[in-house]
């Protein structure tokens, strides 16, 4: 299933072996596009292509949660051919249990008059984060993250 | 066949060279092996590689466009006719060339603290201070010599990090490799000198296929410098080296490269060097450490991914790189960090600068396997684009297969900040001077990891590359 | 002597400064006031020669027609800009930058002298002891960045100082230091253009240019 999205503000999408194509265009505010993948079992692969238009400002956030024996393969390609855009892509992956996550944030920049950044973090909570939660009586991080990701979506 | 070669520009060198072994076939391999007086097991090893080549295909997945080398036209071996027993007997014309290239092959080298193994068109000319290092039990010699004098070490480690059939270029190298360097640091020894090798591709249609093997035994340390220069040529020259590093328990290998191959005509892109290198380090021991530092500013095509296999628990792999491309250069470079040992750590800092019509790609892989509990990676990839026609690609692959490992990766792409340029202009710096400062600042975190001798050369190289590219 | 005639300036086609005329003799200081958005900063940047500003009119400093020169050349003729928000320049060491500026100023100091004078100055201004070793303005507060500017004026005198709200956001001691610096500059024959919102200042300086929508009110 291919989905072509044009001018967008905030968008939450469920993923399941699909491809997404986003072309943020110029608007006054920064556009935020979020993807959340929650994979409890089986395999899932997703491909997201972002091609910003001139003078657009956008932030793409991708959350990947995997548990049990799930496997997630996510490619996010940022192609920038025209000038004037500012784009940021952030991918955050939480691999719980024996799951596997592959994350590939690619940037192909063919125009120097742009700002393009990306961040890619994979792993469970850091020790300081875990400690903080423990002092609040929380030790089931998996459920905490899963719930908050689901909540954000709704 | 004996040819006297003359060069269009730069300097003329009348060294007689013997070019033999044309074409990639069994005769060529046997010829090379017999010329080097190799033992039977090594010839067999080479032939196995030639055989494996039949089942491999030349890769074309990189973001590169190039004219494929005609492997049947290349001369796979080229050595100066007169061989010298010691450095005092070396052909004066060769020594003069090294003089021009600024390589310290004399007593000056001792003051600089550099022991040099100079490779000139496939044969090592002389190795200085071999004897002095031998007092420490440190072996630093040409690969050919190591085969003769330390065959048990070579046999034990050769091909254990990069097997013959690892990839197309490594396979060719395994079949027809010419000389290279061999280093062995015994347990507990810290190599007192920076070890260094210079390469120079001289003859027409001759590829360079060096093989380097560096072994750091338990608790040892070595810093190795690789610097390359090449004169201007019209035909593309192929450079397909293989470097294998092995670090045992608590050992450390620091491998630095400042690369200065001829990049090809800035307008047409013709004539440059093809640099397809396989470099891999195995951190076999507990708390072993391998760092790769490279400053790449030459060659028409660069395809290299110095990598670390982090097998040992708490082992550390590092990759620091500055890659500058201009004119029509194309670079596809990066690193692979494979985490197998628990608690292993890796750090990647890559800075790419693209000028002119060039294309600069970072391709990286960080893999956390199920056994790499609590392993950590940090990656920073930044690209600076100068001018309007260049391209910058960042293609990081991250894979995580256990819940306790952590990978953090950040990347930015953009141009030199107008704000910064303006600020420096208000302090009287021209755009070129200001860009030079900013570019140096951009690369600072990588340049700081180079040994001092190289840092100066690297800085100079960067400056020369930037000249005339701004404004 | 500074003579500015019929100076107008636009950015991306939009006119910001309209027909400004200023004549100042050596040792004089002009205070530029006006509401936010009246064009005060832009006026200073126009005189400095910021590349994105399209300017018309003449700017002459003594014998030099500044308006014919690009930005860095104006700086080399003795124009010093005190930036309102100086940028961070990552990877560039503070002392290294001072060295470069020293070269542009005909090596006014030997390397050793530059280091010791700069460090004394940083100490005097209340900056951290490792300031010269830090990367230029990286992680620095607005006030600290202004102190960097101050140190530079102190080290490298200018003939024409363009001060863009040097005092805002600084504590009393530093503010007093700035005004003392202005007096010293005028005392040795330099010319100062000062943009400031401070009400107390207005009583101190009689020579005032008030801007509204880029034009002079008086």
What's the short story on this structure?
The complex is a heterotrimer of chains A (154), B (471) and C (218). Helix content of chain A is 14%, strand content 52%.
Outline the structure in words.
- By secondary structure, chain A is mainly β.
- Chain A is built from 2 helices and 10 strands; from the N terminus they run E-E-E-E-E-E-E-E-E-E-H-H.
- Chain A has helices at residues 127-135, 141-153, and strands at 2-5, 10-14, 18-22, 31-39, 43-50, 57-66, 71-80, 86-95, 100-109, 115-123.
- Chain B has 471 residues and is of the alpha/beta class.
- Chain B has one domain.
- In chain B, strands 6, 7, 9, 11, 12, 14, 16, 17, 19, 21 and 23 form an 11-stranded mixed beta sheet that branches.
- Chain B is globular.
- By secondary structure, chain C is α/β, with parallel strands linked by helices.
- Chain C has a single domain (2-216), classed as 3-Layer(aba) Sandwich (Rossmann fold), CATH 3.40.50.300.
- Chain C has 7 helices and 10 strands.
- In chain C, strands 6-7-8-3-9-10 form a 6-stranded mixed beta sheet, with helices on both faces. In chain C, strands 2-1-4-5 form a 4-stranded antiparallel beta sheet, with helices on one face.
- At the A-B interface, strand 9 and strand 10 of A face strand 23 and strand 24 of B.
- Strand 9 (100-109) of chain A pairs antiparallel with strand 23 (391-400) of chain B, so a sheet runs across the interface.
* Count of alpha/pi helices of chain C: 7
Give the CA-based shape of chain B: globular
Strand order in the sheet with the most strands of chain C: 6-7-8-3-9-10
The tally of domains of chain B stands at 1
Please state the CA-atom Rg of chain C, rounded to the nearest Å.
17 Å
Q: What is the CATH top level name of chain C?
A: Alpha Beta
Strand content bin of chain C: 25-35%
Can you say what the CATH homologous superfamily of chain C is? P-loop containing nucleotide triphosphate hydrolases
The radius of gyration computed from the alpha-carbon positions of chain B, rounded to a whole number of angstroms, is: 22 Å
Give the strand content of chain B.
35-45%
Biggest sheet details of chain B: 11 strands, mixed
Structural class of chain C: alpha/beta
């Amino acid at each position: 299933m291919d989905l072509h999205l044009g001018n967008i503000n905030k968008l939450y999408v469920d993923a399941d072996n699909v491809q997404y194509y986003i072309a943020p265009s110029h608007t006054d505010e920064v556009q935020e596009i979020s993807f959340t993948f929650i994979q409890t079992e089986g395999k899932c692969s997703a491909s997201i292509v972002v091609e910003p238009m001139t003078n657009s400002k956008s932030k793409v956030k991708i959350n990947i949660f995997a548990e049990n024996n799930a496997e997630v393969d996510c490619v996010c390609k940022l192609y920038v051919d025209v000038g004037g855009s500012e784009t940021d892509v952030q991918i955050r992956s939480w691999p719980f249990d024996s799951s596997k996550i592959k994350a590939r944030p690619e940037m192909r920049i063919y125009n120097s008059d742009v700002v393009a950044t990306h961040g890619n973090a994979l792993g469970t909570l850091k020790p300081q984060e875990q400690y903080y939660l423990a002092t609040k009586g929380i030790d089931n991080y998996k459920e905490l993250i899963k719930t908050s990701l689901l909540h954000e979506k709704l | 066949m004996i040819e006297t070669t003359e060069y269009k520009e730069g300097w003329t060198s009348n060294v007689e060279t013997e070019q033999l072994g044309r074409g990639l076939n069994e005769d060529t391999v046997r010829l090379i092996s017999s010329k080097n007086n190799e033992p039977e097991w090594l010839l067999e090893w080479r032939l196995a590689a030639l055989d494996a080549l039949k089942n491999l295909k030349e890769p074309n997945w990189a973001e590169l466009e190039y004219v494929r080398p005609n492997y049947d036209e290349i001369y796979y071996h080229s050595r100066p006719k007169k061989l010298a027993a010691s450095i005092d007997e070396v052909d004066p014309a060769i020594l003069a060339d090294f003089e021009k290239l600024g390589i310290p092959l004399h007593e000056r080298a001792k003051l600089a603290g550099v022991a040099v193994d100079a490779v000139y068109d496939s044969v090592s000319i002389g190795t200085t201070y071999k004897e002095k290092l031998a007092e420490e039990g440190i072996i630093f010699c040409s690969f050919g010599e190591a085969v003769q004098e330390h065959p048990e070490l070579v046999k034990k480690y050769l091909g254990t990090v990069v097997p013959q059939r690892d990839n197309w270029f490594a396979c060719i190298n395994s079949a027809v490799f010419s000389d290279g360097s061999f280093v062995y640091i015994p347990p507990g020894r810290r190599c007192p000198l920076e070890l260094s090798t210079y390469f120079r591709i001289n003859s027409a249609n001759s590829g360079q296929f060096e093989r380097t093997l560096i072994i750091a035994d338990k608790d040892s340390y070595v810093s190795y410098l690789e610097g390359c220069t090449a004169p201007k040529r019209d035909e593309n020259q192929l450079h397909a080296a293989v470097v294998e590093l092995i670090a045992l328990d608590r050992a450390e290998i620091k491998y630095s490269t400042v690369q200065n191959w001829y990049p090809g005509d800035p307008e047409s892109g013709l004539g440059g060097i093809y640099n397809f290198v396989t470099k891999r380090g195995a951190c076999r021991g507990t708390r072993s450490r391998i760092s790769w530092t490279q400053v790449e500013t030459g060659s028409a095509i660069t395809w290299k991914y110095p990598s670390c296999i982090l097998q040992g628990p708490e082992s550390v792999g590092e990759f620091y790189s500055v890659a500058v491309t201009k004119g029509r250069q194309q670079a596809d470079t990066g690193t692979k960090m494979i985490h197998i040992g628990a608690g292993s750590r890796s750090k990647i800092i890559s800075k790419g600068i693209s000028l002119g019509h060039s294309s600069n790609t970072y391709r990286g892989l960080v893999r956390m396997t199920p056994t790499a509990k609590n392993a950590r990676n940090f990656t920073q990839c930044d690209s600076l684009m100068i001018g309007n026609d260049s391209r910058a690609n960042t293609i990081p692959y991250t894979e995580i297969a256990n819940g306790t490992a952590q990978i953090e990766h950040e990347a930015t792409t953009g141009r030199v900040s107008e704000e910064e340029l303006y600020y420096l202009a208000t302090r009287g710096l021209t755009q070129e001077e200001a860009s030079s400062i900013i570019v140096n600042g951009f690369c600072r975190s990588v340049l700081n990891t180079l040994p001092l001798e190289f840092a100066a050369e690297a800085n100079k190289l960067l400056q020369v590359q930037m000249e005339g590219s701004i404004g | 002597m500074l003579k500015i005639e019929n100076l107008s300036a636009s950015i991306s086609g939009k006119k910001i400064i309209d027909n400004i005329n200023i004549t100042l003799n050596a040792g004089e200081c002009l205070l530029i006031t006006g509401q936010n958005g009246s064009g005060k900063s832009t006026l200073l940047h126009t005189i400095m020669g910021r590349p994105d500003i399209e300017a018309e009119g003449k700017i002459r400093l003594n014998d030099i027609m500044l308006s014919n020169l690009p930005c860095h050349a104006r700086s080399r003729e003795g124009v010093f800009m005190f930036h309102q928000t100086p940028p961070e320049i990552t990877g560039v060491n503070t002392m290294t930058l001072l060295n470069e500026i020293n070269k542009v100023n005909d090596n006014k100091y030997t390397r050793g002298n530059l280091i010791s004078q700069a460090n004394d100055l940083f100490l005097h201004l209340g900056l951290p002891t490792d300031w010269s070793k830090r990367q230029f303005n990286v992680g620095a507060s607005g006030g600290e960045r202004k102190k960097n500017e101050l140190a530079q004026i102190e080290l490298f005198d200018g003939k024409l100082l363009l001060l863009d709200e040097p005092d805002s956001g600084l504590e009393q001691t530093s503010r007093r230091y700035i005004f003392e610096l202005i007096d010293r500059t005028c005392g040795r024959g330099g010319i100062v253009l000062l943009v400031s919102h401070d009400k107390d200042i207005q009583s101190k300086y009689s020579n005032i240019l008030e801007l509204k929508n880029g034009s002079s009110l008086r």
